[in-house]
């Protein structure tokens, strides 16, 4: 297997400047890093006067739109059938594998258009024509490094995007990836005008009723195996519909990841956007327990302490069977 090496920052910059019509595709697994790295890169392209389009295959949560202007991103675009002909460059941000551009994990990019892959996930196979993959708190942290190498004028808006992504993708600066360098980036972004305290209030003191109801479902279905040090819950779409919840922004496994006396936790959920499969979100409570190893064996990805994957209904017809698949894999982690 060829060695995975990053393209030089100046080489990537030259490619971007030469492009006439860039396409930015958001990763299907919505989070602030996927969103904010896209918004920051879009602002950068505006500074260069490079024509570009931003697309996302699903809905952006309403709550997020109250914090950031996402109007430039076209939602619910079928990236499998999208007309790529007008574009001469594709930029992928925060996608650990190119398949993750869709929730079914089977996206294949057009072979005739060069691409840039900017990411921070361990195991990223460098699928782009040009790659910049750096294992750090977030893709936005890696993007901040590129912006500084390119001497980009980082505006207050861009600083807010980058800070939001670094803070959330590091577990509110609690994951082991948060070192002195990352903390210094937060300080540098605050010095550039990023509103750290305002964003933290938004995250921690601005919870939607719908999110509280979904958390209640997750807690009600919680199963704790104290002897084997794991816990899980099941979030069925039928339970969500029964409560008349149309939208929520809770990351299911984050709800129970603080449970004491566990090595790891996971939540199994059904999702109408991926019929025919269970979606599994996994979190480590013990920082030495590697949930990424479990996810990767099922075609998923993420990080050592936060990962996700899918299990098809053909492999596990019931939630109990899906639980067994995860537990069997965990025994070898």
Automatic annotation (TrEMBL):
Regions crossing the membrane: none
DDH domain location: 22-166
UniProt superkingdom: Bacteria
DHHA1 domain residues: 228-330
Record-linked InterPro entries: DDH_dom, DHH_sf, DHHA1_dom, Oligoribo/pAp-PDE_c-di-AMP_PDE
A molecular function (GO) term: nucleic acid binding
Protein name: Phosphoesterase RecJ domain protein
Organism field: candidate division WWE3 bacterium GW2011_GWA2_44_16
Taxonomic lineage from the root: Bacteria, Katanobacteria
């Amino acid at each position: 297997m060829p060695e995975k090496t990053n393209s030089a920052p100046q080489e990537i910059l030259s490619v971007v400047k030469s492009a006439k019509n860039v396409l930015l595709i958001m990763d299907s697994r919505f989070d602030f890093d996927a969103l904010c790295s896209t918004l920051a890169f879009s602002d950068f392209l505006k500074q260069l006067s490079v024509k570009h389009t931003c697309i996302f295959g699903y809905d952006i949560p309403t709550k997020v739109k109250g914090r950031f202007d996402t109007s430039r991103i076209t939602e619910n675009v079928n990236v499998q059938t999208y007309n790529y002909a007008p574009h001469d460059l594709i930029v992928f941000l925060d996608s650990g594998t190119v398949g993750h551009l869709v929730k079914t994990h089977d996206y294949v990019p057009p072979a005739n258009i060069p691409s840039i892959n900017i990411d921070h996930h361990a195991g990223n196979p460098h699928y782009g024509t040009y790659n910049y993959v750096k294992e750090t708190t977030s893709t936005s942290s890696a993007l901040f490094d590129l912006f500084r190498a390119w001497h980009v004028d980082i505006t207050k808006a861009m600083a807010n995007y980058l800070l939001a992504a670094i803070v959330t993708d590091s577990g509110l600066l609690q994951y082991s990836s948060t070192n002195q360098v990352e903390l210094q980036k937060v300080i540098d972004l605050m010095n550039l005008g990023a509103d750290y305290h305002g964003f933290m209030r938004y995250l921690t003191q601005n919870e939607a009723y719908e999110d509280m109801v979904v958390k209640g479902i997750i807690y009600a279905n919680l199963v704790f195996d104290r002897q084997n040090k794991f816990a899980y819950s099941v979030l069925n779409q039928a339970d969500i519909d029964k409560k008349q919840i149309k939208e929520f922004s809770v990351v299911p496994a984050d709800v129970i990841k603080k449970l004491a006396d566990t090595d790891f936790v996971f939540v199994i959920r059904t999702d109408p956007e991926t019929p025919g499969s269970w979606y599994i979100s996994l979190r480590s409570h013990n920082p030495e327990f590697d949930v990424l190893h479990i996810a990767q064996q099922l075609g998923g990805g993420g990080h050592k302490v936060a990962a996700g994957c899918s299990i098809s209904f053909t492999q596990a017809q019931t939630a109990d069977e899906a639980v067994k698949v995860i537990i069997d894999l965990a025994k070898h982690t």
